[in-house]
Amino acid sequence: MRGVVFDVRTKTAKLVEDDTPLPKVSYQEPEPIDLMRLKEDIEALKSEIMKVKRAIETLHEGYKVL
Amino acid sequence: MPYPPQGLIGGEAAGDWEVIAEVEVEADCDYVEFTGLDINSDVAYVLILLVKNPLSVNVTLQLIINGDAETTNYYRQRLSANGTSVNASNSNDNYVGGAAANDVTNEIIWIILDKNGYTRAFTTQLYGSGSGLYLFFNTIQHTVSQTNVTSIRIQASESGGIGAGSKFILARVKRP
C-alpha cells in the first residue's frame, strides 16, 4: 500500500510504501440516484404506455365495427 | 484541566478546537494516517475529510483505530437519506463512508474513547451531487478495549482511491 503518515508530535508527514495488501471490503455506498434522469425515464415510459393504450383502443374500435 | 473540558461541553470556549494536523495529499494514495496521538490528554478529536476519488469506481473509506484493520472488530449504525428515501442499518464493520466514482466526498468525524475503553466515532457525510446528494450519519464502536488512541487511519478500499488534492484536517479539544 501507499499512504501518507503524519506524526502530530513532530508535525512531519512521510510517504510510506510497502507490500501490504489493501483490506478486503464487502460494502459499497449506493450509486447516487439521478432523480432528473429517473423522471425523464418515467416520462418516456409513460409515453410508450400511452402509445400501446391507443393501439389497443384502435384495435378495439375495429373489432366493434366488425 | 477543568472537567468537563471547556472546549467540549459548555463554558465560554464551547466549540473551540485546535488544529494539530493538516495533510494535503500530493499524489493518489491508499490511506492517510495520523500517529503520535494521545486521546487521554486531548479528550476528543475531530477529523475533517475532503476527499477526491480519482477512480472510475466507487471507493469505500474505513476508520482504523490504533492499527486495528480487522473490519469485524467494529460495529456501525448507519442512517442515510436521499430525497424522501431514508434507510438505516447495523453492520459489523468500520466503514465511515465513501466517494462515488470520479466524485468528491466531504465528511466530519468526531472521535472519543469512552469510559470502558472503547473508541467511538460519529460521522456526518455528504455523498454524491445534485439530486443524487445523500446525507449519511454513522456511529462506530471499536469493540477492542484500549487504554488510549494513538493513531487514526482513513483507509481507501481501492488502490489510489484517495486522490491528489484530498485534504485531511485533525483537531483536538482546545485547552484554555
Q: Can you characterise this structure?
A:
The complex is a heterodimer of chains A (66) and B (176). Chain A has 66 residues and is of the alpha+beta class. Chain A is built from one helix and two strands, in the order E-E-H. A two-stranded antiparallel sheet of chain A has the order 1-2. In chain A, a hairpin with a 4-residue loop joins strand 1 and strand 2. The radius of gyration of chain A is 30 Å and the shape is rod-shaped. Chain A starts with a strand and ends with a helix. Chain B has 176 residues and is an all-beta fold. Chain B has one helix and twelve strands. The N terminus of chain B is likely disordered. Chain B has one domain: Jelly Rolls. The interface between A and B is large, with 28 and 46 residues. Strand 1 of chain A pairs parallel with strand 2 of chain B.
Question: Notable features of this structure?
Answer:
heterodimer; A: 66 residues; alpha+beta; two-stranded antiparallel sheet; 2 strands; B: 176 residues; mainly beta; Jelly Rolls; 8-stranded antiparallel sheet; 4-stranded antiparallel sheet; 12 strands; 2% helix
Q: What are the segments of chain B in which pLDDT stays under 50 over at least 5 consecutive residues?
A: 1-13
Oligomer: heterodimer
Total strands of chain A: 2
| Mean pLDDT across residues of chain A | 85
Helix-strand makeup class of chain A? alpha+beta
One letter per element, helices H and strands E, the order of chain A comes to EEH
Number of helices of chain A: 1
Radius of gyration of chain B: 16 Å
The CATH top-level class label of chain B: Mainly Beta
What order do the helices and strands come in, and which of them pair?
The complex is a heterodimer of chains A (66) and B (176).
Chain A lengths: L1 E6 L4 E6 L17 H31 L1
Antiparallel strand pairs in A: 1-2
Chain B lengths: L16 E8 L6 E5 L3 H4 L1 E9 L6 E7 L8 E9 L2 E7 L3 E5 L4 E10 L5 E9 L6 E9 L9 E5 L10 E7 L3
Antiparallel strand pairs in B: 1-12, 2-11, 3-8, 3-12, 4-7, 4-11, 5-6, 5-10, 8-9, 9-10
